[in-house]
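To the wet lab folks,

You asked to see what we're planning to order before we commit. Fair enough. Below is the target structure as tokens, and below that is the sequence we designed to fit it. If anything looks off to you, flag it before the synthesis order goes out.
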């Protein structure tokens, strides 16, 4: 039987120091309660996953770096043979853990959520923008040989800055980029108040931007491209097929939900 190269994503907390309008309560967690999974429980989950053959782990939230045991968690996962970790973060506290990140840099990947260049667009506050802190943290990580990617969630509000943000990320900071269209949820934190049900779907319709809006631009700036390309964290032909565009030593990957799932 052919082994499927897959990974386990663990949202270790629902707490976050940011409240982005397109996020839902709890972030990527299935829980809507404000909670952090106890360290002993997380360790058990990882042990069980490893015992059935999973060696790739994605740590997310909420914001995982605000969890007190975050550094210990990296050490715990890395104590297993051949494990790899992706860390999804807004970058606010990432340098607090620089020592342990550098220690395991060959098996570890940092993903920053960065949605805009400006902190305010169309009257909406963008907390995950290309701030001085994000730029300096990125440079420190890169100087220490750590792989970095920017995830950009594209909406009607930040679409005007996405192309410029891609060029800055690739040409000035030399990081990889992933474009994601807006997930359709039954609830969002919204601009000021939480929206649910029909109002949430109306907000999604208002904010959704198709990835096809960027394909010509990406073809123009890229030296090469490849459909259904993967970074190796998961195998090809699993999940939503993604196209990648290569520019210099870095790449831009596009997750286009309109392409549907592959089994």
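Sequence we intend to order:
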């Amino acid at each position: 039987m052919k082994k499927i190269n897959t990974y386990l994503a663990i949202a270790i907390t629902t707490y976050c120091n940011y409240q982005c309008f397109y996020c839902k309560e709890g972030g990527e967690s299935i829980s809507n309660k404000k909670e952090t999974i106890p360290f002993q429980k997380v360790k058990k989950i990882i042990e069980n996953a490893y015992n059935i053959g999973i060696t790739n782990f994605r740590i997310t939230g909420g914001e995982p770096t605000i969890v007190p045991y975050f550094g210990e968690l990296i050490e715990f996962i890395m104590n297993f043979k051949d494990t790899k970790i992706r860390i999804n973060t807004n970058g606010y506290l990432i340098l607090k853990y620089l020592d342990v990140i550098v220690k395991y840099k060959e098996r570890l990947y940092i993903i920053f959520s960065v949605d805009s260049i400006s902190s305010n667009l169309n009257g909406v506050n963008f907390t995950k923008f290309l701030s001085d802190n994000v730029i300096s943290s990125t440079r420190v990580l890169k100087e220490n040989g750590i792989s970095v990617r920017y995830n950009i969630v594209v909406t009607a509000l930040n679409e005007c800055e996405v192309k410029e943000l891609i060029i800055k990320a690739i040409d000035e900071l030399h990081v990889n980029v992933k474009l994601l269209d807006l997930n359709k949820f039954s609830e969002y934190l919204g601009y000021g108040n939480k929206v649910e049900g029909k109002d949430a779907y109306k907000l999604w319709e208002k904010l959704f931007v198709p990835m096809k809006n960027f394909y010509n631009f990406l073809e123009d700036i890229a030296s090469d491209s490849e459909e259904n390309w993967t970074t190796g964290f998961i195998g090809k032909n699993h999940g939503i097929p993604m196209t990648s565009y290569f520019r210099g030593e870095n790449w831009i990957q596009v997750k286009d939900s309109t392409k549907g799932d592959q089994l």
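Structural context that might help your review: Residues 222 and 247 are 5 Å apart (CA to CA). The chain has one domain: 7-259.

Thanks,
Computational group
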